[in-house]
Amino acid sequence: MHDIRAIRENPAAFDAGLARRGLAAQSSEVLALDRARRAAISQAEAAKAAQNAASKQVGAAKARGDEAEFERLRALVAEKKAEMAALEEDARTGDAKLTAILETLPNLPLDEVPDGADEAGNVETHRWGTPRVFDFTPVEHYEIKGIAQDMDFATAAKLSGARFVVLRGAVARVHRALAQFMLDLHVEEHGLREVNSPVLVRDEAMYGTGQLPKFAEDSYRTTNGWWLIPTSEVTLTNFAAGDILDGATLPLRFCAHTLCFRSEAGSAGKDTTGMLRQHQFEKVEMVSITQPEDSLAEHEHMTRCAETVLEQLGLPYRRMVLCAGDMGFGAQKTHDLEVWLPGQDTYREISSVSVCGDFQARRMNARFRPESGAKPEFVHTLNGSGLAVGRCLIAVLENGQTEDGGVVFPQALHPYLRGRTRITPEGELV
Predict the structure, then answer these.
(1) 241-244: which pairs have CB atoms within 8 A and are 24 or more residues apart?
(2) Is 219 a catalytic residue?
(3) Percent of the chain, pLDDT > 70?
(4) Less CB within 10 Å around the terminal CB: N or C of the chain?
(5) Residue 27 catalytic?
(6) Which residue in 20, 208, 27 sits closest to 108, CA to CA?
(7) How far, in Å, CA of 327 to CA of 137, rounded?
(8) pLDDT tens per residue across span 352-382
(9) From 27, 352, 354, 385, active-site residue
(10) Element spanning 258, H or E
(11) Which of the residues 194, 311, 349, 377 is marked catalytic?
């Protein structure tokens, strides 16, 4: 949500930020609604003051036997009461209209974010690792001989339809090992606090992080009103909803491994084969809640947490700064990490780490008190993948594949597989 005071003070900057997002100017309409709402509030307060003043005079007129003045004042009280009620309703209606506009407008990009309309405008800032040179033609993850039999899309389709997968045997175990490895790394080395959170949430939680109302079609809702989370960003960030935190406790750093659900609305025809784009998937998510002056440094810290996962797994990647037109709804600035997939001969996104400023905090009314007795301020929120488990599995399989159809695993995974180091062409973990 946007700060209406900031829009009043600099409407041109607000419209310029929206323009960088590819959106039309909105300040004129927003400020017109704001003026009408504020005028109704002011007039309602004046009517209430007049009502109160007349009410005090009614008794005096009655006491002195001035029946005409008594009746006039009593009529004035009723008139001002009705006027006040009408004006208060106008203010509520104006506030609802203003909120309806502001809640569907994305966060404004920071000045340092590059301009651009889509992914073509994203800027690479860092690259790590050298893609392996194969002495055979590498294939995609679902085509690897030792993997294909236990990465079962046909059974998943029978159970649930398209964009689902059943993992069995060695592949399922490696998938589980990856999630455990990520959690341990974030908790033991990066100082994040592990959380086990619900995957079903109320409307308020989805609204707080920006999924509602604009992106309802991107998520699944149960018949009794719960939403299936698209990522545990929703639960972890909403821990601060409605609270006033002690500034001395910030930053709060959380991580969680959960199932995630996305309808993939609008993605028809994209990545229809393999595990890249699924309706149900698993992710290790990171969330930080900080004081405003610390959020950009925290963004870099969180990005490094995600990059360290890739580096310890020996997976080449590049860091991209997303342009203004390609960022997510709630982001001020986003780093995408793209991992090298030899089967596709390209880099693909595996993590997106965003700083949201106070955008989500305003929606959730999440605040902190810098020091005892100080006025509460809105916190800043950040979120990022650390990492998407399925996509990490894809990268490990494709980068570790052998010519005979087996897979060799990075050393960091060996302890999580009880010393086993590879999958044979027959699908055995040895």
Answers:
(1) 241/204, 241/205, 241/208, 241/364, 241/365, 241/366, 242/364, 242/365, 242/366, 243/366, 243/367, 244/367, 244/368, 244/369, 244/376
(2) no
(3) 99
(4) C
(5) no
(6) 20
(7) 35
(8) 999 999 999 999 999 999 999 999 999 999 9
(9) 352
(10) strand 252-261
(11) 349
Residue 8 bears catalytic tag: no
Contacts of 154 (CB under 8 A, 6+ apart): none
Based on the residue annotation, tell me whether 352 is a catalytic residue of this protein: yes
Q: Is residue 391 annotated as part of the catalytic site, yes or no?
A: yes
**From 27, 285, 391, 398, active-site residue:** 391
| Count of CA atoms in the C-beta half-sphere (13 A) of 160 | 12
Residue 266 pLDDT:
67
pTM: 0.94
Spatial separation of the C-alpha atoms in residues 399 and 389, rounded to whole Å: 15
From the list 20, 37, 253, 262, the catalytic residue is 262
Angle subtended by helix axes 169-188 and 295-312, to nearest 10: 140
Is residue 107 very low, low, confident or very high in pLDDT (cuts 50, 70, 90)? Answer: very high
Distance CA 348, CA 336 (A): 9
